[in-house]
Structures are given as structure tokens and as C-alpha cells.
Amino acid sequence: MLDVAGAPRQYRLAVPSEPTGKRPLPLILNFHGSGVNSGGAVGQAVYSQLEEKGPARGFVVVTPNAGDPPFWEKLELNFDEATDANFAFTRALIDNAEASLCIDTKRVYATGFSGGAAMSAYLGCKLGRQLAAIAPVSGVNAAEPCPHGKPMSVIAFHGTADPNVAYGGGPGALRGRPDKDWPSVETAVQTWAGRAGCRTKPARQAIGTEAQRIAYRGCARGADVVLYAVTDGGHTWPGSSIDVPMNGHTTQDINAADLMLEFFSHHPPPSKNAKS
């Protein structure tokens, strides 16, 4: 429980069980999807596998709960008008973790699913100087693009048959927002690549039979921008053991949790001389 502007806010905390000496630990903020069926923080912790896999690799994982209503954003507004309360909550979570745990302030990351993915992309824009990388899953194109700012490392995941956040973008690409023309997933990722100063043409590599790795190279300050596009994939978390048929196909050719943890581990590399 955390008090934010006089209101109690809830979150889950998972820390490595093995001692890590005096080396500061990286921090992941893991945002659940929007809506009453999202499962909140508990659902996201299980669905993403990060509460189990993150600490095993030395990460502190904080999984916040949006509360009531269970949204990180006002869906009827642009993300530039995201609720002040949730933004303040995020800042408080980072500050609290830094104050109470031995956190490496250069290795703070944000990920999330669906509306939580949009929240992680939004934070990549608004907290660009505090975040080392972001990993939106099924929602990288559901937040306003921000082409300017510090080069940001991004690893994104999205199904080409996503019924809730359309891969191809366009008017009504985001379910519940028929009034807005949304960018495609590849356009959104390309915007992040442009911000990071990457080469304009990405390399494409097939992973298994269902996934394609679209990677931008030559980015500034050691940044990398990568998209895993899942052919015929739905509005899902790749590699999750939980299948939600109404949201479409969940691929097992890749595991989003494993891939983002590996990505985070190298962006930036941990300092060998870091002290708590």
C-alpha cells in the first residue's frame, strides 16, 4: 500500500530471493491491461510471468493496480491527458522503490499489456530521462507518438490479427475509439527508432513459424529498437500459459517475458562498480 496525494494505492512487489551483495538492482514497472476483465495487478503478475521470472534474473518487479476505475488512462481522451493521479502514482512507486530498496536508478524499465502497454509507451515519453527502456505488449501504437527526446530502447510485441488494437492502425484501430486515426504498429515502432537515431531500414528475421523479429540498428547511445510481430497473433501476451480464446491466438514460438528480460539486461549493461 502506498499513499499518493492522500489516497491509498495498491501494488505488488517481487524481489530476488537470493542475496545480490551491494550491487543495486534493476526495477521493472509492470502495468496490467484496462477494463474490468483485466484481472488487475494479480492477473498481470500471473499472465506476464514477470513476477516469477524477473526476480529469478535479479530484477525487482513492481506490478501496480489501477484501482477503480481499472484504467491507466481516460479512454475518451488523448494520452497527453492521462490522469494526474496515475502519473503521480507511477512517480511515487519509483521514488518509494529507490528509497526502500537498493535500486539502480539507471536501470528502471516499464512494460505492460494492452492499456498497460500504452501506459508504458506514455511513460517512455513523459519519463524518458528516468527510464532505460520500455516493452509494450499489444499496445505500442495505442499512445500518442513522441518523436523527440532521449534515445529510448524499445522492445515491442504485437499480433497481426489483434482484434482490440489493430496492427495496421487507422480510424477505429483501438476498440472503443472510432473517432481517432491511430498509427500502425510498425509506424509507431519506427517513430521510436527515429527518436533513437537508428537506421531507417530494419532487419527482418523469422522466429519459428509465427513470429518475425523486426530490428533497427545503428541507434544512438547504445539504444536498440525491436518489434516482434506475431503472424495471426491476437490481443495476447506471447508465451503466456494463460490462453484467452476471445482475444485470439497466443503464440508459443516466443516468450515475451524472457525476451524483454534479456533485452533489459543489456540496456544499459549494469555497472561493474555500482554501489548501494
| Domain module count | 1
Largest sheet: 9 strands, mixed
- CATH third-tier fold name: Rossmann fold
**Helix/strand-derived class?**
alpha/beta
**H/E element string?**
EEEEHHEHEHEEEEHEEEH
Q: Can you count the helices?
A: 6
Report the β-strand fraction as a percent range.
15-25%
Q: Can you tell me the overall shape? A: globular
State the CATH class. Alpha Beta
Give the termini separation. Answer: 25 Å
Structure summary, number of beta strands: 13
Task: Compose a concise summary of this entry.
With 276 residues, this protein is an alpha/beta fold.
Q: How would you characterize this protein structure?
A:
Helices cover 24% and strands 24% of the residues. With 276 residues, the chain is an alpha/beta fold. It has a single domain (2-150, 163-196, 253-265), classed as Rossmann fold (3-Layer(aba) Sandwich), CATH 3.40.50. The protein has a 9-stranded mixed β-sheet with strand order 3-5-4-6-7-8-13-12-11, with helices on both faces. The longest helix has 17 residues, at 84-100. The model is unreliable at 271-276 (pLDDT under 50).
